[in-house]
Protein: Glutaredoxin domain-containing protein
Organism: Hemiselmis andersenii
Amino acid sequence: ARLEGLISASEVVVFMKGTRDSPKCGFSSKMMALLEEHRVPFTTFDILSDEEVRQGLKVYSTWPTYPQVYAHGKLVGGLDVLNELAAEGELLSELKVSPEDGTPALEPVTLVSKIKRALQAERVEVEDLSDGCGSKFSVLVVTEKFEGMPLIERQRAVHESIKAEMASIHALTLKCKTPAQAAAAGL
């Protein structure tokens, strides 16, 4: 009963060696880095502080190693499992949590104004395609400045105009057109 209480203490509980601020093994340290990178809200329990929990949880979970991550009272796995979920872009959905508000969500209006200003664009449209696993945007930029510019240079110019925001964008699809190209494409 005590283990079930600890496992369900919060949405995501990490049973680990050490604490969030002071992990006591490499695997626990890597787990903290992974969860913090993905802004997963979680609490920890230091198994080194309680031998009964340390041994009991191995039996309860039939999982022999630590760290162990539980979400909503169910074992999700250890570091290898969570690394794989993160690599597949499924970490937050598998844990059934939303990212912590450590960084504000990027607003499309911010991108529109910065791109318009930097490129004197007559038209900028930003569609937010974010799905809970990072910021994803589709952007259309129409400006005379693109006249005679190779496509790669057009995209570089857009990237440069939102350089500060690029660090928090996970995927960006760009359409960079001159007014004549936009009209011909029916955009």
Q: What stands out?
A: The domain at 2-95 is CATH 3.40.30.10 (Glutaredoxin). The first strand starts at residue 12 and ends at 16. The radius of gyration is 23 Å.
